[in-house]
Amino acid sequence: MVRTLIAVLAFIAGPAFAAPFAMITDLKGQAWAMDGAQPKKLALLGYIENPTEVKVDPDGKVAITYFANGVQYSFAGPARVSLESGAPKVIEGQAGEFKKVTPEKSIGGGLSSDQWRRLQQATVVMRNVKSTFTVVGPDKTALLERQPEFEWTPAAGAKGYRLVVYGPDNDIIHEATTEHTSLKPSLELESGKRYRWKVDALGVAKPVSASGAFTVADDAARERAAEAKRSAGSELGARSFYATTLEAEDHAYDARSEWKALAKDYPNEPEIVQRSR
Questions:
Q1: pTM for this structure?
Q2: How far apart are CA 26 and CA 34, in angstroms?
Q3: What is the pLDDT of residues 96-108, one digit of tens each?
């Protein structure tokens, strides 16, 4: 099955900075946005920015999760559904199923402009192929994982790499070399502290290095995320919504770990695989 692969923008044209109120968290078969002159095929992980009517094909099924309350609505075809900002309404077809996939409010009151910006940035970063020597992560994020793996892109001609991690007081807390493009040191980072790191390419004609920085989330944020992960369970829709929530709340490194796990479980879903990169 080939689905339309979306980029950053939702499948429905709208105001350039309008934050979406929901997203497509599971999709089997085909479903269509009926607004405009031509129906537009929906895609897994697509964001819904404006109210619209959706048509679900007879063999299709779509799950839509709302950011404000963490409720997932599922509709089996044939059906026509009006997706409104508060909740969907069935126009034709059988009533949908719904369940809450988050502990309390997922993102209280819906996405803020900052959270929407993070989702857009995360999508661009994950789908861009990095052709230069640079850090992959953790960088520019609030880390939930206190024992992270440091990752970077290959440097042309490098025989190896030196990783240096600096602590909150700017002192070196770890230094090691490797032939690989990732390394997981035996470190347990402190909650609420800021760290930076760099990696040097070894054996190259001209010295080259890349650097990153991040903070470690506090214990309260870690507990909230753990509760949300437990609530997500094992289903694709709830898990993809959880990973998206992590991105929106500035936990990009941890979100990528979730996307990687999803890609392993759903290797035939191109949108999931793309988000894991």
A1: 0.84
A2: 19
A3: 999 999 876 556 5
